[in-house]
Each structure stands twice: as structure tokens, then as C-alpha cells.
Amino acid sequence: MRSRFEPDRRLTARMALTMFLLGLLYVVFVGVLIFLLKSWVLVVVIAAAALWAQYWFSDRIALYAMRGRIVTAEEEPRLHGVVDRLCATADMPKPEVAVSALDLPNAFATGRNADHAVVCVTRGLMRRLEPDELEGVLAHELSHVAHRDVAVITVASFLGVLAGLAVRFAFYSGAFGGRRDQNAFVVLMSVVAVSAAVYAISFVLIRALSRYRELAADRAAALLTGRPSALASALTKLTGDIARIPTSDLRTAQAFSAFYFAPAISGETNRSLSRLLSTHPPLEKRLEQLAAISAQLGPTAGQRG
């Protein structure tokens, strides 16, 4: 069932193109591995197991890594109340609600579809945001679920995981017959080179999609709530606070930065080089879009919801 979140055909087209290119890359990668390792059974089993685990357990893996846990309405009535209102407004299934113990002010959504999704916020975010700002952030995360880009990013990131696994298995499996001769070394270096190339290509494709999907989620959330200024306020506040989070805490979150509302990398949006490879668009670009939406809504902005 289609939700009431503003549809984004350009996002849908970008997701389809990214998945097509990654799928093509995946087929070529598996074919090359089978040729190099001379064992199609090993490659297919590893690839299938990794994809299965990534697709079915991505939400649990993300929650565990970020020290999050599912909370009930009795434990977090305020948080559940906001999610309930937004899901009713958007006419979409309510995802599970989780809270992370981290002080890092952020939020993320994960899961394979709208019926098996989790929206998680950190204690640091709940402590810092006003009610309307929290609503804007949660609407942003729910739009990721409604647009299905959470599942696409989850599956897309699988190729990078597979590339890393291929290198490890090349070292530790019996693919080389236990020998350390010159031929085995050449095969090993070939696997490493191919895996590195595949990882680099998938990295760039996923980052490009991730930046656009954040803009799409900002727009959908602003139109659903009718309060783009609240979302802009939350963005400004959280981006500034993340820059003051200890580096050790940021390292915990960086592996999941693509899933976050705001980039979990201090100073990411202020470096020209990192903008090309960043998971999020620059803060000023997000704020410009929200300002344009506010002008589009006119006097009604801030009076809905």
C-alpha cells in the first residue's frame, strides 16, 4: 500500500539504476572469482550466505552495533506518540521503535521493508531536540522506509561486504591447495585487486545514491509535517553538536553513517574532497531545499500536523 509521503520519481529512478549497475558488477565479480579460485561452489555459497544475512538481519546488526534496543510504548510514551501520529498521517505501517544509549545525537531507519522496519533514535538526540524538531527527524526516517530506499541501501552495501569476504577467504580457505608457490601468490593478488576495484566502484555508487536519498527524505518529511523550519533547526543543531562529539564515539557510528539522519563524521560537510565521497549532501544544500519548501508552503508552513 502506497503511503502519503510525497513520491519521488527521481529517487526511484536512481535506485533502479544503482541496483542495475551493482547487479551487473556483482555478476562480473562472482564470475571473475569463480575463474580465479576454480571453485564455483565456494564462491556461490559465500555470496548467498552473505546476501541472506545482510538482507534478513541488517536491522538487528545495526541495532547491536549502535547499542540500541526495541522499546515499548510504556517505556518511551513520548517517542511512540510521535511515531504513531506520523504513521497515521502518512497511512503507513508502524515500524518498531528503538533507542540507542549513545550520546551521539542522531537517528536512523533500517529493515528490509515497511512491515519489517526499525526506527532508532539516540539518547543524545532526544535530549537535545524540541518536540517539533524530533517530529521532523522521525518523519525523515519514516520516509526512508516508505520510499524503500533503506532496503536498497542495505542490499547495495552487500557487494562491498562480499568484496571484503573474498579477500579473507582467499587467504584462509583451501582455494590455493595449501601451497605458497608463485601461482598461488598471483591468484591471491588478483583476487585482492579485483575485490578492491569492486569495492571502490560500489562505494562511489552507494555514496551518490545516499546523498540524493537524504535530500528526498528531507523534502518528503517537510511536506508531510508542514514544518520545514523545524527540520532545518534539527539539522543545524545536530550537525553542530556532532562536531563536538569525542572521536572515539564517532568511530563506533561511522560504519553506519549512510543510514543516519546527519553524517556521523566530524567536519564531513566542510571538506571539498569529502563532499564527493560523503554519505550526506552538504548542510547548506539541505537547508536551501528546506527554505525553498517553506516558501512554497507559504503562510501555512508550521501550522499543519
UniProtKB/TrEMBL annotation:
Cofactor: how and how many bound: Binds 1 zinc ion per subunit.
Membrane topology according to the record: Multi-pass membrane protein
Domain Peptidase M48: 75-292
GO molecular function: metalloendopeptidase activity; zinc ion binding
GO BP terms, alphabetized: proteolysis
Transmembrane spans: 12-34, 40-57, 150-172, 184-206
CDD domains per record: M48B_HtpX_like (cd07327)
Active site, UniProt feature: 141
Keyword tags: Cell membrane, Hydrolase, Membrane, Metal-binding, Metalloprotease, Protease, Stress response, Transmembrane, Transmembrane helix, Zinc
UniProt entry tagged with the keyword Lipoprotein: no
InterPro entries: HtpX_protease, Pept_M48_protease_HtpX, Peptidase_M48
Pfam families: Peptidase_M48
Cofactor(s) essential for the protein: Zn(2+)
Membrane found in the keyword field: yes
Location(s), subcellular: Cell membrane
Any GO CC annotation of this UniProt entry: plasma membrane
Record-listed Zn(2+) binding positions: 140, 144, 214
Entry-linked PANTHER family: PROTEASE HTPX, PROTEASE HTPX HOMOLOG
Family per similarity comment: Belongs to the peptidase M48B family.
Protein name per the record: Protease HtpX homolog
Species whose genome carries this gene: Streptomyces uncialis
